[in-house]
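Appendix B, record 7
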Amino acid sequence: MPRFPRNFQPGYCYHITTRCNNREFRLTRNECREVFLYAIKKAKDKFGFKLYALCIMSNHVHYLLEPARSEELPKIMHWVNWYTAMCFNRMLKRTGHFWEKRYHSTGFANTDTKRALNTLRYIHANPKAAGMQQGFFYDFSNYGIHDRLSDDGLTQWHPAFLSLGKTLEECAQKYRGFCKKYRPQPKPEKRNHWENKLLTGLKAKTKAKKSSPGQMKLPWDEWERTNQEIEEVAYKFIFANCYNPQFASIVLQAQQQGPLWMQYQVTKT
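C-alpha cells (predicted):
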C-alpha cells in the first residue's frame, strides 16, 4: 500500500505519535524516559524547533511541535527515532526495530486556537485516559508548566494557551478548567480484517487483557548509572511537571547523597 505524502505547510504545528514496535511496553523504565528527554533536548539544539506538548507513555509518545522550517519535520523525527532506538537497544540489550512503522503526524495552522487547545488537552489527558493517573499531572508530560506556570527546560506555551487570558495566571486557570471538562472518547472495537470466523473464535478464547504494565516493575537487567547531563535535563523536566512541588524539593536536597535516578525511585515509593 503506497504511503500518502506528508503535508508540510509554513506556520503549521504537528501532532505527532510514535509507537514502540509491535506496541510493546518498552518505555516503562524511568531511565528510558529520562534518556528520551535528553534526546529531545539534543534534537532541539540541533534543529531549533518549538515543542508545545510532550507525553511519554509506556509504549508510545505524543508531541506537539512546530519546526523552524516545515520541511525539516522528517529530519527531526528521523534523528530522534534513530538516536533513541540506538540508546534503547543498548540499554535494554535488544536488537532490531525499536519504533513501529513511521511516525503519525497531523498538521494544522498555528492560528487554529480551538484545534490547538483540543490537541494540547488530548495529549495531556493520555495518562488519565489510560488509567495511569487520576489527574492531569504526570512526571513525563508537560501539563505541569501550564497548570503551575513552571519552566521544564524543553517545552513552551502555545499561542493558543497564551490567548486564554490577559495574564498567565488567568491562562492557567482557564486551561485547568478546560482540561477538567475532558471526557475521553471510547475507542471503536477492533474487527478482524478478513471477518474470518476462525480468527473470531480464537479471539474469544484468549485470556482476559491484563492492565497496562506502565507502572509495573519488570525483571530488567542491572542498569548502569546515567551521566550528569542526562540527569540534569530529565529532572528539570520532572520537577516542573510532577504532581507535588514539594517532591521536587525533597529530591533536589538529596542530590548529593547518591545517584539521582535512584533517589527519584526511592522518593516515589
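Remarks on this record: The radius of gyration is 19 Å. Confidence is low (pLDDT under 50) at residues 209-223, 258-269.
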